[in-house]
Amino acid sequence: MDNLVKAVVAFRDARDWRQFHNPKDLAISICLEAAELLEPFQWKRSEEIRVFLAEDGNLRRVGQEMADVLILLISMADVLGIDLLEAARAKLDENARKYPVERARGNATKYDALPK
Question: Do residues 8 and 78 lie in contact, with contact meaning Cβ atoms separated by under 8 Å?
Fold first, then answer.
């Protein structure tokens, strides 16, 4: 991950784009890229999605949209001084407390409505 962060920062800095990377605009860009990730799946049923992803180049294009989101998340974390891996680990720990395996396994219910 460190190498990826360094590559993202080097790419940005070589182009003098840090001046444009404020939290608001990065958050907007993350949402826009996430919406682009949704577009190939819009209006498709599960079987249609499976066929779509099997067609030449589509999985690669979806991966590119995912990469755009990741790159922007890394950029925002850098600007804010957040260790993204540490934040993700902390969030997983929090989710493990909210969704204990014995109550949440196979259940898509929100944590506060899980069966006791």
Answer: yes
Q: What CATH number should be reported for the domain whose range is 2-81?
A: 1.10.287.1080
Distance CA 66, CA 60 (A): 10
| Distance separating alpha carbons of residues 81 and 54, to the nearest angstrom | 39
- Rounded Cα–Cα distance for residues 100 and 93 (Å): 11
In this prediction, residue 18 carries a pLDDT of 97
* pLDDT tens digits along 23-68: 999 999 999 999 999 999 999 999 999 999 999 999 999 999 999 9
Q: Which of helix, strand or coil describes residue 77?
A: helix
Task: Tell me how far apart the alpha carbons of residues 55 and 45 are, in angstroms, rounded to a whole number.
Answer: 16
Half-sphere exposure of 1 (CA within 13 A, CB side): 11
Q: What is the pTM of this model?
A: 0.89
Read off the DSSP letter of residue 55.
S
Q: Which amino acid is at 21?
A: H
Please give the structure tokens belonging to residue 28. 């907007």
